[in-house]
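Hi C.,

You asked whether I'd gotten around to modeling the 430-residue construct. I have! Everything is below, sequence then structure, no commentary in between.
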Amino acid sequence: MSTRVPGPEQGRKVEVEWTTVSYRTIAFYATLVLLTVGFILYLIAPNFFTRKAREALHALTAGVVENGGTTAVDSKRAAHFVNIDGTVRVKKAQSPQWIRADYNTDLATGDFIQTGSDGVARIIFADGTSYVIKPDSLIAVEESGEDPVTRATRVAVQVTSGTVDLSTGKFEVPGSTSKVAFADALASLGEESRAVVQNDPKRNIHEMTMDQGEARVSRGSTTVQLGQYERVVFSAEKPGLERQKVVAPPALLAPPNMALNVVRAPRAERIEFRWSPVAGALAYRLEISPSGMFSNLVVDRKVQGTSTEVSGLDEGVYYWLVKSIDAGGNESQPSAANRFDLVQQISENHQAFLEITNIIQHGRVVEVVGRTEPGSTVIINNQQVFNIAADGTFRHFTSPLPRKGSNQITITAQDRTGNTKTIRKTVVIE
């Protein structure tokens, strides 16, 4: 386009030429220049630019998860209750109020869990880490998530006060971590490890005992490596950590796990309990409870040998474990618990009622929904279902399934007369 501008002199004129350039052309050449400069700089410092690219991708992915993440991703990142017994409360992050815990309560970073003097709870994180929270305890979830790029899981819990029994699963992705803090110490557990942490600020008791696997414990400038049947202790007023050896628990022999005893008179039945001897143990403690978390004991007996008989038990489901006692009176960690059923025989055997109405996948965790006869016991993959409603309906979250591909879930119901029914379902983890 040309424009004529009149001037003071008649024979003089000025012409201005305009050329139209589109925004698309400008953007193309600007992008080309940036890419060229970026490529040259990448050739100069490739490591720096690779790291920055990963950080940008991490931030972008995290934003997508926060603003528009799917339910499946949220479910994998959330921890949840699998057992609740007695008084258990939760205070969600950013909330001033405590609420009663239930099986639909998801736990995330910043949440607090508190048990009363009669309360015990078991929670499972996405990586398979399990926490049994003993009575009069307070813990906080410091981290529960998954790296959106590497898929490495990160779990961290603060034991403010009380006692927890924790175990880690197998870390599927390198770089996954499971940590527990107590007082001013921090422990990082290896995969497939089990430990008990006790933190009592009032009595100045701070300790962690390894029952299986390994852990690295740090406090200030001191770091110790713990192995099986080792304990670390410290006092608040003294620096450093002290490592100790502890006696091992025995292996349970009889009754075997999941034993079914159908008898005519349960209270008159004498049941023999046997376990293996342990080097360094002078006595043992037998504990029997109707609760899988041993929130209340019907038998708490010190035994000099490796067997004893128990009678006077009512009909029902029971769990039992044994602790070793050394010469100093110190008790070991409890053995793995066995379950047995004591059932009165009152009728001819027939199949129990059991139906599965829904199977829902949450990553590696599977939610099983079904119905059985009121008063029946349901076992799913060797875990008892505690939240059975009065009408027999139940909902249960399994522990994370062990592998990708085909996994079998076994659901068994047992009615009050000892009759059983088993249903098996196949779940494919991609």
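If it helps when you're writing up: The longest strand covers residues 153-167.

Thanks,
B.
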